[in-house]
Amino acid sequence: MNTTNQPNVKFVQTAEYRENYSNSVQIRVNVWDFFLVFGTMQQSSETQVELRNFQGVYLSPQQAKALMALLQQNVSNYEDAFGEIKLEPKAPGGPVH
User: Fold this and answer.
1) E-strand spans in the chain?
2) Whole-angstrom Cα distance, residue 67 to residue 2?
């Protein structure tokens, strides 16, 4: 039987580490990677919405798929505990943030 020892993982936060709130995520995809752009969306008037992007993160396709699985599991756990998350209706043909 072939057993592989798993390494100990140590999480270290660099001096550049920051936490931010985002209510807008845009995703751009190409053959090599996924690019996630995080920002905040604020409605400054009845007809004007402003998106303030503050961070872009590149992910490999493998990391994007792993993130998708982690998010799905955590959203399911959240809904089991607190109820279904309802999404607002999407604007026809418009971007989703």
Assistant:
1) 24-29, 34-43, 49-59
2) 29
Q: Output 89-95 pairs: Cβ under 8 A, ≥24 positions apart.
A: 95/26
Three-state SS for 41? strand
* Tokens (6 digits) for 54: 């503050």
- Interval 9-52: pLDDT, tens: 999 999 999 999 999 999 999 999 999 999 999 988 889 999 99
Tokens describing residue 68: 């998708």
What is the DSSP-derived secondary structure letter of residue 23? S
pLDDT of res. 90: 66
- Take residue 63 and report the two structure tokens written for it: 């990391």
Task: Convert the pLDDT of each residue in 64-88 to its tens digit.
Answer: 999 999 999 999 999 999 999 998 8
Among 19, 55, 9, 21, residue whose Cα is nearest residue 36: 55
